[in-house]
Amino acid sequence: MTSKRKQKVIAYIDGFNFYYGLKDRNWKKFYWLDIVKFIEKNLRSHQELLEVHYFSAIPNDKGKASRQDKLFQANKLNPKFFLHLGKYLPKKLTCYSYGRTIHSYEEKETDVRIASSMLYDCFVNKSDVVILVSADSDLIPPIEVMRQINPMLKIIVFFPPKRFSNELRNICDSYKNLNGSFRVFADSALPEEIELPNGFILERPDSWK
Fold it and tell me: Which of 2, 19, 111, 168 is the most exposed place for a label (fewest CB within 10 A)?
């Protein structure tokens, strides 16, 4: 008797939604995360993870960018991890009460990149299950199109800590709130030190301990 084929799974992670969810939950120590391992720990026994696509952008702050780069270098050692970077663009915020202008930055392209990747993979029938880690309701339109392309595709949404969307909950096949996943996060931490192929040692940033 042949064993039943496992469901093929691809995960798409909205890095900003995920990061700020952890930040709002005061789970800084979980920034240093083995992202592929985390997704795999959330799968069922009949599922197999093919790829994890992580979408983010490089901060303009040098300290934040350096810490983020360490995280990405560590995770890119796993061939299942794929990084997609958008950009930060200058943004002016005006306080009309005090007549002051604040110069800030906002992330661009992430939701479009997530949508494009999900739609392409759906069109080529790359997986049986999609896991979307986000609470951004702007991703509902591509999910609606995916339903038309492949009605058999199972779509699961993981809501980052302190994040939720009724609209996304209603359109997906099932969902999970990561607000209660402390143990899974803890079990998915990267080692304190990681040696890269060139011999360089990555260490967990002190502010993430």
Answer: 2
